[in-house]
Amino acid sequence: MLRKNRSFAKMFAAYGLSAFGDYFDFMAVTILLGFIWKEDAMTIAMLPLCFAVPGIAFSQLAGILADRWNKRNLMIATDLLRSGLTVMLIFAPNAGVLLGLIAIRSTARVFHFPAQQSMTRAVVEPDQLLQATSINGAVFQLSKILGPLLGASAASAFSPSVSMAVNAVCYVVSAFLLLLVPAMDGRRVPVAASVTGKKGSLRGEWRDGWRLLWHSRTLRMSLLFSLIGLAGIQMIDAQFAVLFREIAPEQPDLMGWLVTAIGAGGLASVTWLRRYQEFTRYGWLLGGGVALIGLMFAAAGAFRQDSTLWLMLLVFFIGGIGTGFTSSGMNYILQKETPPEAVGRVSGIFDSLSSVIFVIAPLSGGALIGLMGASRTFLTVGLAVGIIGFVGIVLRRQIWGISDTRKSEVSHNA
């Protein structure tokens, strides 16, 4: 049973600490730039780029190295590096140095992600992968809810430096927990001759990763739907403040409630997925997730000042279920459908494409709102994303090429 897998338990605890620290720290940096240093809008706009651009530049290299090197050691090294850089953030003299350090720390995170994905595939049995990814997804959703809330509270009550210090400690404890995992669990998986193009060649292994992704219809279509859902979220996620400034100008705290509802929906979805040992109905999982995300945004675009709170919370809770299905579903499919020796490379490709979305989609969303207004943009983008998700459900057998008649196995022994 998964609960008896000590290596996964330690990895799970380490992942939870680092994920919580990331969100705890992000709010502190935002408060420092916006409220204490009072930087201009352009400087603050550089912050998300510092998080996203390293992923575009280095994710695919990180995936190759995760398949080549000892994954446990790579995660320990990146955790310790992130801890040291976070301590340096506390003493940053100005915004330029702060943003530079954040970009370097984000680069370290880029090398951590594929190693964590690949090692999970190595230490978890195939029939427990869905449970493992669901548990990790639940921790991620909780971190999204509690991290910003507690991080902002600590930064406001004390100082942003306190939040940064907490994050630095989280990284150190995460590294210590990983140190307790046997080193052999992070060793390189033997590479099959059919997967490797040029042994020892970075370019050859990079091409093999893309070739594997391209020739796997299941991986290719799953990646496409996951990126569509992510693009929809990123296009208008940052514009919630603009929308609710129009429909609820006297209730600035409403955004906090709705973000919490999204997190609760995501937590509910991954908790439900944890019941299964295997889930092969990818069209329902990803198509349904994307459809629910679209429904949330379209409904938000239809809200008016007299809309009831409970209806808003329900809509955003349902949208949160969609985000949970999409994110946890993609992580599960990536690990299940990718050969163990190539999980790092395919994860790196996925992370790099996601980082491109993180840069382009918010700019596109802002431009659309400038042209059409917030409500129309939310409605239009939501309908477009929702229709794509609905098509994914209806044409699931043709798109994924997997028989939908195979039943998912249910287990309560997780």
What keyword list fits this structure?
414 residues; mainly alpha; 0% strand
Structural description of this entry:
The chain is built from 15 helices and no strands. With 414 residues, the protein is mostly helical. The radius of gyration is 21 Å and the shape is globular.
Number of helices: 15
For the termini, the CA-CA separation is 6 Å
Strand content: under 5%
- Cα-atom Rg, whole angstroms? 21 Å
List unreliable stretches of 5+ residues.
191-198, 403-414
Which percent bin holds the helix content? over 70%
Secondary-structure content class? mainly alpha
Topology at a glance:
Layout: H1 6-36, H2 41-68, H3 71-90, H4 95-123, H5 129-157, H6 160-179, H7 202-215, H8 217-237, H9 240-247, H10 254-273, H11 282-302, H12 309-337, H13 343-372, H14 374-394, H15 396-400
Helix pairs in contact: 1-4, 1-5, 1-6, 2-4, 2-13, 3-4, 3-6, 4-13, 5-6, 5-10, 5-12, 8-11, 8-12, 8-13, 8-14, 10-12, 11-12, 11-14, 13-14
